[in-house]
Design goal:
By secondary structure, the chain is an alpha+beta fold. Helices cover about 30% and strands about 25% of the residues. The chain has a four-stranded antiparallel beta sheet with strand order 5-6-7-8, covered by helices on one side. The chain has a four-stranded antiparallel beta sheet with strand order 12-13-14-15. The chain binds zinc ion (2 copies). One zinc ion binds near residues 171, 174, 176, 205 and 208.
Length: about 300
């Protein structure tokens, strides 16, 4: 990881229009290219080659490499900065008119979900019951290159993969190690009520500090057992968007020490149960068909499951 001094030196090296334009000159159609000193100088706005040489020296080492054949090319860090500039990652703030979504609201079932975009963050909410379902950022280039018809699916795929990477223990932003934690949600005044205590999945990257919080059900939708269960009922669970994976999902906190959560989904009277541990791993799955399911699946059932999943 980079400490503060290294980072400010690196960003200081980028603090001039001439140096930023050198990085952009060393990329063509998104790919790195090599250039001689005179080619780079010609492409710049500098009046003297001595003045240009000074700027180029500030980049060499961190962002630009001078090869043995005297030509210049981007380092990996330089390429990432150049692509970030091209994508508007450091400069663009996108606001957009609300985009209507196809799926019904999971709370009130009205056909009234939309995606509102402000300062690069998309909020999916319902205009009927006025509840917000999720709020997640999306990069400026993602907004710029997808029209209203494509944007909801692109946003869904992007976050589906991000959740998958977090769940696999690798940060989708920096590649760093991720700490996962399934935990009860502290509901304050609701504690002690008859309602089952809600749970949530939290991920935090040790490298860049990126973090994500989402329902536990979202972390298991790509589990092979889930994909197969839906496939057997002629449904494709990967069609479900992140803002509504379906009303058939339930999450139950079985135990806090050790932490065990049961996530169930139900199709045509068949039930699939996944037992999830504190680190987010699925330790056990159980499938019950309508014929083999016990007539009453009550509290005793939960205890049995807890023992099996321990
Ligand atoms: Zn609603
Ligand atoms: Zn990270």
């Amino acid at each position: 990881m980079t400490d503060g001094d290294d980072a400010s030196d690196a960003f200081g090296a980028l603090g001039s229009e001439t140096r930023m334009s050198v990085l952009q000159t060393l990329v063509e159609d998104g790919g790195p290219v090599d250039r001689s000193f005179s080619e780079l100088f010609a492409a710049s706005d500098e009046d003297t080659s001595a003045g240009f040489a000074y700027h180029l020296r500030q980049l060499v080492g961190t962002f630009v490499r001078k090869r043995a054949d005297e030509r210049y090319e981007l380092t990996d860090a330089g390429l990432r900065v150049a692509r970030g500039i091209a994508a508007g990652a450091y400069t663009d703030s996108v606001d957009r008119e609300p985009v209507p979504l196809d799926e019904p609201c999971p709370f009130c079932e009205e056909q009234s979900l939309d995606a509102r975009i402000a300062d690069n963050v998309t909020t999916v909410g319902c205009t009927s019951c006025e509840r917000d379902l999720l709020e997640l950022p999306f990069p400026p280039a993602g907004y710029a290159t997808h029209d209203d018809a494509d944007l909801p699916e692109a946003f869904d795929r992007y976050h589906r993969h991000r959740i998958g990477a977090f769940d696999d223990g690798v940060c989708p932003t920096c590649g760093g190690n991720v700490q996962a934690r399934i935990e009860p949600v502290d509901e304050g005044d609701d504690a002690g009520s008859e309602e089952p205590q809600p749970v949530t999945a939290r991920y935090a990257c040790e490298g860049c500090g990126d973090r994500l919080r989402c329902p536990v059900a979202l972390t298991v939708v790509d589990h092979p057992g889930v994909v197969a269960f839906y496939h057997d009922h002629d449904e494709d669970v990967t069609d479900r968007p992140v803002w509504n994976v379906g009303g058939e999902w339930r999450e139950t906190l079985l135990s806090t020490d050790p932490l065990a959560v049961r996530v169930t989904t139900r199709l045509d009277d068949d039930e699939l149960a996944l037992y999830v541990a504190r680190d987010g791993s699925v330790v056990e799955t159980q499938r019950r068909t309508a014929e083999t399911a016990p007539p009453e699946a009550g509290a005793g059932d939960a205890e049995a499951a807890e023992a099996e999943s321990a």
